[in-house]
Amino acid sequence: MAAAATCGTSAGNKGCTAAAAAAAGGKNNVTSFQRKGPRASVPDSGCARLVSIAGTRPSVRNGQLLVSTGLPALDQLLGGGLAVGTVLLIEEDKYNIYSSLLFKYFLAEGVINGHTLLVASAKEDPADILQELPAPLLDDNCKKDFDEDVGNHKTPESNIKMKIAWRYQLLPKMEPGPVSSSRFGHYYDLSKRMPQELIETSKWHGFFFPEKLSPTLNIEPCSLTHGYIKLLQFIQNVIYEEGFDGSNPQVKKQKNILRIGIQNLGSPLWGDDICCTENCDNSHSLTKFLYVLRGLLRTSLSACIITMPTHLIQNKAIIARVTNLSDTVVGLESFIGSERETNPLYKDYHGLIHIRQIPRLNNLIYDVSDVKDLAFKLKRKLFTIERLHLPPDLSDTVSRSSKQIPAASSRLLGQECGVMAGGRKHLDF
Amino acid sequence: MFPELNNLLNTTPDRAEQGKLTLLCDAKTDGSFLVHHFLSFYLKANCKVCFVALIQSFSHYNIVGQKLGVSLTAARECGQLVFLEGLKSSVDVFFRAQAEPHPLQFLREADAGNLQPLYEFVREALKPADDGQAAWRCPVLLVDDLSVLLSLGMGAVAVLDFIHYCRAAVCWEQKGNIVALVHDSGDAEDEENDILLNGLSHQSHLILRAEGLATGFCRDVHGQLKILWRTPSQPAAHRDRSLTYQYKIQDKSVSFFAKGMSPAIL
């Protein structure tokens, strides 16, 4: 800073800008803004250049390596993407419709980017899951399809400059359209399947729990359930064998990301009973699993998505512990089957999305969006996440049903203020 | 360390108190900035620090520490910092049977045992040097965080026993300090966590409680910090002193202000 000031007073503009640039550049090399490698401390990561892996980008805040979750709207809310080495926990919606979609988007993004996949499920065969991945929207025909998709929406107004409510023009729009040359984050068409050749060229490992059940259990007794132990050993094996953590001397250093997807973790199909009873025998099984999994992820080039039916877990304390043990937690709440489905307030949306936790990695602060009440809508080619807009209550007669709606909406807004749920008492309007 | 927090606590690295147990507590928000503060504070105060970091990796604390002015790698190399990285060690313990008892041995065991191997590790790390001369000022044990031990199968009583043993060894015997972080689960009805939190609250000399605002998320005020000075040995003859401040976390520091006096509002 001082060098720039003295440069300003002296003559010679060219020299002073070069010096200022050099000073700024030198400062950048010394501070930790530019991470010189992925955060996962691979032992020989003494490489002085940024490791450029397909489908990743460094975060603008702390240089952390990020991968896309497969849903650009969600990437934007999570501060650019999912950090490599962390766990994204999706709290499933009631009928597991939209959470399985997010799961598929994550895996499809891995196929497109050429990442290695590890799919673990106790319900479906991973080969079947991969067959059902949605097809990516390619750049040439996506713009046309996107326009026709939102053709029935009243979008042309967005190009008109606002004359009266001009302050609203400054508000950021929540949903970006498909960018023509985006190598980070793609859009997927749910009506089509991923082309077979893309799936075949991708490298994937499947863990289907019913196949891995062995009749003789000759493992050391530990408080994890059998399924979790097997899954952890499988993941650790893949990481070690393929060199994602750099500890295997026989495999050369891997320059790819391992995307791990675990479906319905905690459900009774995995042999865990936290969804069945309130006082279960091995209530620490799931939390220990998450802890060791996170330990595996932190030391390797991998990112993990887990969907968990938290609405079935009887013991609220376990949900709090699971949230503390995960890095990013996103909750989905769909309107299907609830009384909100017929509520005219929510007719444009399919459900709510709650960003419950975003990690602070390598930093004291984190990117948190100001908008706390978010709703999602699934169109054929686009899964959009938008700010929840409540229309004004313009009823002439104050009928009983309409009186309940503002109360419910204020309660909703009170809950969306992500920090204190008890805050609704303080909202007295 | 955050200079404003030092002013509020009325301490500086030169005259840090000894023999104290400080409890850090967070409710509905993330209180890890307090851990970073105390870590850099005690490293600057030239104390020997044993950091049991169960929730994040070493590089995370290192990078934040660099922003606060301490280098953890340098401290570790010269012996001032003994760092137990929970996440990395858990992988070693879980997948490979260890020859000698590992501090995180309980990960392999079926029943909830006790934390004796961890206590032995801490005691070994903080014992004074053999040659008698004090290279460092006083030993400090820093734990981030204790609620994770409950998630890993330990009972609340086992964790309280561990802290009790550590207090006897570190605070009383060696006149050192202990700083521990516990999450407050609030309305999540986590009984074990409540037992742990209440038990530690009664033993501690200083309680720093970071809470989210009661009215919800605010961009300019990230939360509220309640500071409570206690004297656990004496019954409540004189009143414990308590202060409440609101804070905003920035990139390299945290600014504190009185309630309602946030610069964004004034």
TrEMBL record, chain B:
It is found in: Cytoplasm; Nucleus. Pathway: tRNA modification; 5-methoxycarbonylmethyl-2-thiouridine-tRNA biosynthesis. It holds the Pfam family ELP6. InterPro entries: ELP6 (IPR018627), P-loop_NTPase (IPR027417). Gene3D superfamilies: P-loop containing nucleotide triphosphate hydrolases. GO terms for biological process: autophagosome maturation; cellular response to stress; homeostasis of number of retina cells; inflammasome-mediated signaling pathway; locomotory behavior; motor behavior; neuromuscular process controlling balance; neuron apoptotic process. Component of the elongator complex which is required for multiple tRNA modifications, including mcm5U (5-methoxycarbonylmethyl uridine), mcm5s2U (5-methoxycarbonylmethyl-2-thiouridine), and ncm5U (5-carbamoylmethyl uridine). The elongator complex catalyzes formation of carboxymethyluridine in the wobble base at position 34 in tRNAs. Involved in cell migration. Component of the elongator complex which consists of ELP1, ELP2, ELP3, ELP4, ELP5 and ELP6. Keywords: Cytoplasm, Nucleus, tRNA processing. It comes from the Eukaryota. Transmembrane segments: none annotated. GO terms for cellular component: cytosol; elongator holoenzyme complex; nucleus. The keyword Nucleotidyltransferase does not apply. Belongs to the ELP6 family. This is Elongator complex protein 6. Its main location: cytoplasm. CDD domains: Elp6 (cd19495).
